[in-house]
Amino acid sequence: MNVADKKRLLREMLFARRFEERCYEAYVERKIGGFLHLYPGEEACAHGVLEAARPGHDYVITGYRDHIHAIKCGADPKKVMAELYGRETGSSRGRGGSMHIFDVEHRFMGGYALVGGPFPLAAGMAKAIKMKGGDEIAICFLGDAANNQGTFHESLNMAKLWNLPVLYVCENNLYGIGTRIDRSTAVIDQYKRVSGYDIPSAQEDGQDIEKVFKAAKKAVNHVRSGKGPYFLELMTYRYRGHSMSDSNAYRSKNEERMWSDRDPIILLRDRLIEAGELTKADYKAMDTEILDEIEDEIIAFAESSPEPRVDEVEKYTLAENDPWVYGGGR
Amino acid sequence: MAELMYWEAIRRAHDEEMANDPLVICMGEDIGVAGGTYKATQGLYEKYGPERVMDTPISENGYTGLGIGASFLGVRPIIELMSVNFAWLALDQLFNSAAKVRYMSGGQLTAPVVVRSPGGTAHQLGAQHSARMEKVFMGIAGLRVVTPSNPKQAYGLLKSAVRCNDPVFINEHELMYNMKGEVPDAEFFHPLEGSEVAREGRDVTLFGYNISVHWCLQAAAVLSKQFGIEAEVVDLYALSPLDRAGIARSVRNTHRAVIVEEAEAPVGVGSEVMAIINEECFFELDAAPLRVSALNIPIPYNHGLEKAAIPNANDVVAAVRKMFGK
Ligand SMILES: Cc1ncc(C[n+]2csc(CCOP(=O)(O)OP(=O)(O)O)c2C)c(N)n1
Ligand SMILES: [Mg+2]
Q: What CATH number should be reported for the domain whose range is B2-183?
């Protein structure tokens, strides 16, 4: 990772932070409805891992906390915001919402709301990659609490059994909604749980993007070289409540401060400043530019976009005019 | 035209589709080396190898999800769930992922998987091996449901299901795998929508699907011979979407309807067909429609009790006689 890369990643992470904060505001203004799960605090996970992979080429799948993964894969933030606004120009044409961002063109294969749902889907994409003989890999990002689903164990077993090119990334933010990991999970270190499937794994500091990048590079290389699945656990923390309806009352101020002291953006920023590669003024200018872009382009696009047509409410339920429905004849 | 057994017809469809497209695979418990519980995949492992004929671990939700994920990238998996009773474990992936992904991605992604599974009450298999679950599948938007009543349909429906871009659930029947029937020698694709008039008649329509079509046909023969009642039998091989037009067409013809289902009455095919008749052609009716359904109980082990729980052709005859006051 050279200096230019680091500066770019700093900007991407800051953009992700500001994007999510703006979502928060839009939700409070009731411009965004439904469940909204935000990513601040965890930026180094998605950015570090995907920087080490090939976004837009590798197939990526995740849960409901999905805006930033989609954007890092190449999704247009304008379309992501329009999706949150429920507009026809949204990435899922307003039919998906925050938890169901998709950008298949950039191989972002979706956000899914069932905890643990993407585990087998990722293994299946890896199976397809293997059959078709490509050099892509499948990458699945999920939280710590998802590992208590049966699909976790079923998928790890099959991924190893069939030697599938899939990387499982566990974003361990220590909580599943309001339940702290030690109250739901017998083994706290998640990377240890995969040893029963003989899958190589590692645990890394998820706040330091350089460390994430390095660990992910190793993981990605392993998977891409045909050696089968890999499990990477990243220790991280979400700053806000689980979703907008979560009061966040179950965590101590002390704990929150401990983590915000190791903010992924500040860590990288200060490192660049110390190295003389960035000034405080540069950073400020970067931030202002981002805030302007979000307001003038992204929010403006979402606000001015049309609603989906009500007479198209049934569209996309089933394939349209599929000849095989009629016996292939029509 | 060759006589094939139901399982042979399914096997033939697998074989042809796998030969036609290298991305067609099949997966399930004991389907490969062991050849399949009902022989529906016999010999395919030897022919196509372990990458395409996958013996899965006993992880129904896991491998169904894996098949769905593979289908996102153009693979066309035919997933066998050993019994619909075990399909409950796979419903999360089938309903939450496969059935919804097209809609919630705004049409970007589809899950062209086929899931086949036998339902029905066989011979004293007890409560946990005797479920009839078609009512569960047919209530899910985004999922097609078909159910073959004979080898020809079993062959042609699977062929079309593999090629269709929607997820399709095929509801087979444990008692029907050894049933014989004519299957055209030439390749053919059965429509996934519609219904079929299995016997023409003018006095009453008997609606059946899968095994109950045969009870209807037996009953129709008795009704004709002994009571002079000519029953039309309509085979609802497509349960989702149901053939509203076909149902209404027949009722306009006969003005009477009896719906025959192997499953319990609540929230089932019978109630749905009745609702459609009500909505489409209520004023055509000369009598209130009737249902012939299973008792609403877990299926008992004891042979006599098991028989009492499930309807048969005599029950259909009795229902029609009641309707006609004969
Ligand atoms: C199958 C299922 N059960 C419960 C929920 C409700 N739920 C949504 S997120 C969540 C916690 C998941 O925590 P984790 O996997 O650690 O991810 P995080 O939100 O912390 O990123 C729960 C219980 C759900 N969406 N799906
Ligand atoms: Mg968590």
A: 3.40.50.970
